[in-house]
Amino acid sequence: MIRPIENIMLVLLLACIHSQLATAVSEEWCLERGFDPSNLSCDTCALLEESTTLQSLQKEKNAVDEGDPIDLGAECRTCCQAHRENPILHPGESLRGRYRYALLTYNENSLEQYGEIKDFIERDMDDVLSFKGANRFQAVKSEMLGGRDSEMMMMMGMMGGGGFGGGPPKLMLFEKQKKGGWSEEDEEEAGEVVTLRGWKREDLKDMLMTLLPNA
Asked: What letter does residue 101 receive in the DSSP assignment?
């Protein structure tokens, strides 16, 4: 007989596995639909949504197709990168240097579950710091855990890093600098907070190199 606590842990394990599988196929899912997440701007998706020709073709296809309806705009936005600009739509605008400081926070107990972010910290962070400087970007271990049962934390960490094991890494982007630097306790003051679940290390590096000014 499965005890209540074991039943709960089983449900959480299945949920984490499902989440990880969804993340793993995300890029492939986008490419199959003609969207390349590595360089797709969300401005391009807005352009698709405004195209009356594409909307008409989509409507006609959905009318004769018995399968799931197509929504090109929604599919595009699932795959696009908010930090990229379409140079054709905005020839005089740039997101380069938009933020003054970025703080990456991660939980030591769950970092192994986010291999791409772990690789970024170990292999790419020094490159970013060499261009941006330590006064523009820092990566710190989260201190926001509190007193939890250590065995439960370890079990949750093995199941995907959620809950007691600590959540996914976060990137906080601030529009101004602060004397002494920003901390994870300043999250509400961040201009943007990005949860890095499913992110690729090269995309994270590209985002930081674009959004932060050089040292």
From this structure: E
